[in-house]
Amino acid sequence: MPLLMALCVVIGIVIGSFYANHFGGNRLTVINNGSNRLNNLLRIIDDQYVDKVNIDSLVDKAIPVILSELDPHSVYISAKDVQAATDDLKGSFSGVGIEFTIRQDTIRVQNVVKNGPAEKAGVLAGDKIVMVDGKRFVGKQVTDEEAMHRLKGPKGTKVTIGVLRYGHAKPISFTITRAEIPTKTVTACYMIDDNTGYIKIKNFGEKTYPELLIALANLQQQGFENLVIDLRDNTGGLLQSAVQVANEFLPDKRLIVYTEGRRSPRQNYFSDGHGAYQTMPLTVLINEGTASAAEIFAGAMQDNDRATIIGRRSFGKGLVQQQIPFPDGSMIRLTIARYYTPSGRCIQKPYVDGEDPNYAQDLIERYEHGEYFSRDSIKHHGPAYHTGIGRVVYGGGGITPDIFVPEDTLGLTSYYKEAAMSGLILQFAFTYTDNNRQKMKDFKEMLQLANYLKKQNTVELFADYADKHGLQRRNLLIRRSHSLLEKYINARIIYNMLDEQALDEYLNIDDPCITTALRVFARHAAFPTKPAPAAKIRKKTKR
To answer: Does the active-site annotation cover 292?
Structure first.
């Protein structure tokens, strides 16, 4: 009996090897050979290289290079960066609840999260953190990474900070108990006019859908009849979250999106008919910074003829990534499928591989080609598709809006570009805020603060500040860019003193996309209409 069992095992191995070699191809062998070579190489380096080598560090550097040969969005995230990479999607992190900036090697508290642990302990915007847990924390050691390391921590743990405060000669000490800090993805919700609500979605995370429902309920109490959803510069996030949001606006059994890949069978996502806002007039704002999950939502609204899409062509990311963790805490985000809008178009823009320089330069090339200023300059890389009522849409490079709104270049000069790109506007805005908090602390509403700043001649103050910090004063260009400079300088001060919603409200005043959306609602044209049939050409006949 033992001999018979051994014979059966041997025969099984022989047959299995035969089928693997002759019917499974050499794929498994290639993979084994490749991984063996990598393992052998690392072992040889560790054993024989002239100097001592940190193998873990070497692997951390090698994996991104391998993934970069695949596509632009398959990436490796080291163990120390995983937490930061997932916080935005989770909708919270554990910490003290402050927004800070680092100026002159010192942490400066920019904003304090409402009802967060820092606010409850007594920390105020404008405080300068100079000590953490009894040790001085100033100078070259103060970096974003080190500050995060010291201030973030497990929920329930304590951290003691020492701050310098305006009007106090000596540091004040606060002991803060860390807690879960929510990170909002719906960053603004207010009424633009008596009939129109506005919602800004910054990205799509685990809590976006419940945040949206709260925002909609808020607007419902104010009697909104039309809705603007702003997805400009929304870089995406979770596919499932975008599906949930889209479901709120679509009738039953409408295809929202489907995904498909070599090893990922087609998966359809349909609406269930339970959405409470299926007939609400809707416009969606997009631009070149709108990507991924945000494009899923915009594409679902466009292909189902549910909303009017306004703005500029979106980024064009149609690849689906799966997070795969490693035992050491690191992970990869590997592209496993493409997603397709209901009409069947994949909006992924062309690429050669992960290191394709043209892919990285695409937005700059669009700008240089004139696409931001003229709809006629848009290049469509894919074939034409049709929406439910027969409107023509295109794939292969983002969502093209139904109504194109060019980028506003009025007042754009080389002086303004350098002021913005150099970070001087942000630096000045924080310095101005820090020096004038006592004067502005009583302004709780955006319009009150905006009207106050209008009288402070902040552009002139900025020009003096910039001149002292390397940007030569050019009075003619400053006059040409005065409105633009004033808008963005004051916007940052408003953000520093209030919050992100106040920033959006201020920037949306006279915004061309908002104005266009209001005109669409006024014409009762938010729901796209069936295109007129092509005129029939009569043939002339001789009689």
So the answer is: yes
